[in-house]
Amino acid sequence: MQQLKLAILDLYGGEPNMGMAAIQDIVRIYEDQFEWKVFDVRGKAELPDLSYDIFISTGGPGSPLDGDGHWDRLYFEWLEKVWNWNTKDKETKKHVFFICHSFQMACHHFQIGEVNQRKSRSYGTFPVHKTDTGKKEPFFQTLDNPFYVADFRYWQVVQPDMDRMEELGAELLLLEKFRPHVPLERAMMAVRFSNEIFGTQFHPEAYPKGLLEAFSKEDRKQDIITNHSEEKYVQMMDDIRDPQKVLKTYNTILPTFLEHAIESLTTVLT
Question: Average pLDDT of 231-239?
Fold first, then answer.
């Protein structure tokens, strides 16, 4: 059987972050199953070709609606190539996972919702709620409803276009937490774009140990308390320590995606 190949599409543009290291830690668990490489999309306009089988596209800073006219154009061209490959009668499909910034870009590209800026930043740990379709989603079967995620963003996807989603075969799986005291729409938090293409608004790669270390630093702690309140800080740290919350999400979603992709591809290729 030919060796599987996995590509990590780095959209951080060189900005310091915990996401890249966390994604690579998860990938290394399965690296006996494939060879893998990181592509610097925003920094060097690097995009993988279609010799790769599995793709993880990361979060990143700034507006998902703004690029430099070069890397973003290449990114959307890559996305179209993957989508067209999968919609043709190909025996092997390409498996993609979008995270946060990439998720927003994909939703904008496929025109399945409105991407806009939040009134205030979402920062910390939050419950997300399954839609009726999400309750049947295999990636979420072992997770509670609601389950807890790490979510850090200024931007959001709202106003899901259900007609367009039906046209594509996409499904809305998760919505933002209930906020009855806030007269704002709930953001889309996860979409299955197709059988092989999946995305989350939150960070499923967020590792509790790394979060605890980062948020225990005095400067970061004081920043969260100043901008969000001490109550929010305590709640967030409790959620991170709870093995049934963020840790359970970390152990479930991206690993399940990778296991499903590997099994699907090896079944066809053997």
Answer: 92
- φ, ψ of residue 198 to 5 degrees: the values are -140, 150
DSSP state of 42: H
**Assigned fold of 4-207+248-269:** Rossmann fold (3.40.50)
At 244, list the tokens: 């049934």
* pTM for this entry: 0.95
Residue bearing tokens 């590997």: 262
Between strands 197-200 and 95-99, the pairing is: parallel
Q: How many CB atoms lie within 10 A of CB 52?
A: 21
50 residue type, one letter: L
Q: Which pLDDT tens digit goes with each residue over 172-226?
A: 999 998 765 665 689 999 999 999 999 999 999 999 999 999 889 999 899 899 9
> Are the C-beta atoms of 128 and 149 separated by less than 8 Å?
yes
Distance in Å from the first CA to the final CA of the chain = 6
For 16, 18, 29, the CA distances from 218, given in Å and listed in that order, are 18, 18, 32
